[in-house]
Amino acid sequence: MWAWGRAEARCLLFADWHAEVGYLDEDGNVRGGGHVATAENRAARLRERLGLDPLADATLRKAQAEAVALVADLDAIRAKGQAVLERRRAELAIGEDVSGSEAVADAQ
Question: Which residues span the domain enclosing 99?
Fold first, then answer.
């Protein structure tokens, strides 16, 4: 986050400087040359990583929606498991042989 703030600050400083002395020098070159492009590119890249541009924001929102759907799926699985567990407990409570083996039932 600090890196993004520094990159944005550099861009603002270049913009202020260009407003005072002009964007181009007497030879038609951008004042600050590659440093301006580097600062702008770094700021743009960090904006993307932080989700501060439209595409990154959409990607983050999609990931959040998928996480919510996954939690809902886990809740449904948990509910099905609880229902199976309760059904088995009810079967055991009424004395049904749930072992699947008659030999075990005869041995008792």
Answer: 61-108
Q: Are residues 44 and 68 in the same domain?
A: no
pLDDT digits (tens, 9 = 90+) for 51-75: 888 888 888 889 888 888 777 777 7
Chain Cα centroid distance, residue 94: 49
Does 13 lie in the same domain as 48? Answer: yes
Give the mean model confidence (pLDDT) for residues 70-93: 85
Same domain, residue pair 5 and 32: yes
Cα dihedral angle (64, 69, 74, 75), rounded to 10 degrees? 110
Structure tokens at 44: 């743009």
| Whether the model pTM is above 0.85 | no
